[in-house]
Specification:
Helices cover 68% and strands 0% of the residues. By secondary structure, the protein is an all-alpha fold. The protein folds into two domains: 1-101, no CATH class; 112-257, no CATH class. Helix 1 crosses helix 3 (29-47), helix 3 runs antiparallel to helix 7 (118-140) and helix 8 packs across helix 10 (218-227). The radius of gyration is 18 Å and the shape is globular. The two termini are 26 Å apart. The mean pLDDT is 96.
Length: 257
Amino acid sequence: MLSDDLNACADLLRRGDPDRFLAAMAAPVAARRVLFPIYAFNLEVARAPWVTQEPMIAEMRLQWWRDALGEIREGAVVRRHEVVTPLASVLDPASAARLDDLIEARRWDIYREPFADPAAFERYISDTSTSLLAVSAKVLGPADEAVLADAGYALGLANWLRAIPALEAAGRIPLVDGRSEALRELASGGLARLSRARKARHKVSRAARPALLPLWQVGPVLARAEHAPNAVAEGRLDISPACSRLTLMMRATTGRW
């Protein structure tokens, strides 16, 4: 049975990040106790820059989460909060420090400047998606860092491409190069890294595998972006709900994320 705080984290995800909620629900109960607070933390940080038009207030919201991570990292008394309290029970100092990189990267979301170059874009994806995936996996069990880097990038890229219509509607410039050729190349690179990660999946322990369940839609999404780059701007990357649920069930049952 989950605590009230963990149930609150799960409810946050159900409403705000349904894909990760479904992935966590497909994991063993013991893994959910770890994944729910980490994913809820990510959701709260990800939406902090978007709940206000005032950059200073958005910066303050992100700083609140950095301060909370600082308490966990330093072993200090941790503030009482439905997400922070259970988060403190699963993170070690190194994990808390890595999630701080995620918060720093999210400062890009506050402002309207484009990414400076492809390296800045890749760094943003790595500091957000890969950091989250690596922390989630390593809290559960041993996992190879290179595999997590490839898997995290592919996952982050797929989710970013899915979000492009909303980002553009909000006045952001989400891509360094939005031409069809560049999008096709970007998706192809993501698929290559996903394939490389899956070929080395034996380097991720059985205990850590539930953290990689959020990858269940990545292959089809990136393949569609590669095949039809115009589908990115049109918001047509998602696979059908029935196919999506079936794929997740298969990945969870076999452990072959």
